[in-house]
Amino acid sequence: MIQPHYLCLMSKVRVRFAPSPTGGLHLGGVRTALYNYLFAKKHGGDFVLRIEDTDQVRYVEGAEQYIIDSLSWCGILPGEGPHNEGDYSPYRQSQRKSFYKEYAEGLIEKGHAYYAFDTPEQIEALREKLKAQGKSNLQYGHQVRLGMRNSLSLSKEETQLLLSSGLPYVIRIKIERDEFVSFKDMIRGDIQMDTNGVDDKVLLKADGMPTYHLAVVVDDYLMKISHSFRGEEWLPSAPVHVLLWKYLGWEKNMPQWAHLPLILKPDGNGKLSKRDGERLGFPVFALGWTDPVSKDLMKGFKDLGFLPEAFINMLAMIGWNAGTEQELFSIEELVENFSIERVHSSGAKFDYEKAKWFNHEWIKKCDVDRLLPEVKKIFGEKNIAIHDEQSLKKIVSLVKDRCTLLTDFWEQANYFFVAPEKIETEAILPKWNDGKSLFFIELIRNYSMLNLWGHLELENSFKEIASFNRIKPGELMLPFRIMLVGGKYGPGVFDIATILGKEETVKRIRYTMSLLPGLSS
RNA sequence: GCCGCGUUGGUCAAGGGGUUAAGACGCCUCCCUUUCACGGAGGAAUCACGGGUUCGAAUCCCGUACGUGGUACCA
Question: In this structure, how many other beta carbons lie within 10 angstroms of the beta carbon of residue A387?
Answer without folding.
Answer: 8
